[in-house]
Amino acid sequence: MGLQGSRGNCRQETGVNVAEVVPISRGKMVRDSFLLSLGIMAISGMAMIVTYWAAERGLNAIIQECLRDLAVVTASEMDGDLHERITRPDQAGSFAYHQAHGPLLRLRRSVPDVDDAYTLRGSDKDLRFVLDSTTNLTNQGDDVSSLVIGQRYANAPLGARGAARFGKVKVSSVPYTDPWGTFLSSFAPFRDRARKTVGLVGVVLSMATLNQQLFPLRLALALSLTGCALLSALAGLLHRCSLRSSARSLEVSLQARDLASRAAQDSEEANLARSTVLATMDHPLRTPLNGVIGLTDILLSTTLTSHPASCLQTVRNSGESLRLLLNQLLNFSVIDSGALVIDAAPCRRRPASPRAIRCGSSWPRTIASTPVSAS
């Protein structure tokens, strides 16, 4: 019974439960695929945003440098002495006014992206308008009236105040907002014949114009982010399909393993059933054979001629060989089925040892000679 119980345990250990072995669930696959898509989107999106930020900074630097150059060139063309003579609002339509603001008009006509060009005079705390290019050139859709000579610049940007205070060219680093809108500006001082600073030239670029120049870059960023999102979603979908395929392959492999284990169990059970049947057929097989051998012995004890006696002796020897082979086969079947019963009985080891050695040494010769005698 102990042998049979150990085999049952072995069969239980070799059994495979596919539901317990496969750890990949549908929710986990969706979560992993989503995290993969999110990671790809975050990395690529961050790279694109940084690239856009660097490109925008570069473009802003180029625009600021262009504004600086335009202000410097226009200031070099200004007539400081003539500019000093324009002090009253009624001089706005005079010949001197038109002659003085000629460089501003040439700048506006040569660079259409410039929204306005004007001049200022005064200290950094009290800047006032003098010349304004919008008196002759108005922007399309601009309903703001022209500046008045001597009008105070209430919310003058820091660039204008810095240029008036230090006498150096200044460019707005960030857009500023005043009553006329949001702009980027550059300011350059100009001088009279005595090299005295008499005013500032202001060159203005509105944020609407700047946004138009940045529009292609922003459109490229939006399209890149959209494409990145689509590619990330596709990568997540492909990853999910890959996980599902791997899970199915693992499930099929485990099912095949389970089928092979069950087939091995069935084969072992069939062998055990065969051994059990043979073990239970002990007496039905031995009794007829013993009867044949017993009747042969009875016939041999009678008076027979030499030929029948020889034939009967051959039958008896064959029966004895068959009985010995059958006994060995049935003993192995009993052991294989786990039904072997060992009887504990006292014995003397010294007389029994030679007999056991002789019996053990005679088994191979008996089994090897059995087919010859049976034939």
From TrEMBL:
Gene3D superfamilies per the UniProt record, alphabetical: 1.10.287.130
Claim: Phosphoprotein is one of the keywords in the record: yes
Keyword Kinase: yes
Signal transduction histidine kinase dimerisation/phosphoacceptor domain: residues covered: 273-338
Keywords: Kinase, Membrane, Phosphoprotein, Transferase, Transmembrane, Transmembrane helix
Any one Pfam family match given in the protein's UniProt record, by short name: HisKA
E.C. code: 2.7.13.3
Molecular function (Gene Ontology), one example: kinase activity
InterPro entries: HisK_dim/P_dom, HisK_dim/P_sf
Reaction it catalyzes: ATP + protein L-histidine = ADP + protein N-phospho-L-histidine
Protein's recorded name: histidine kinase
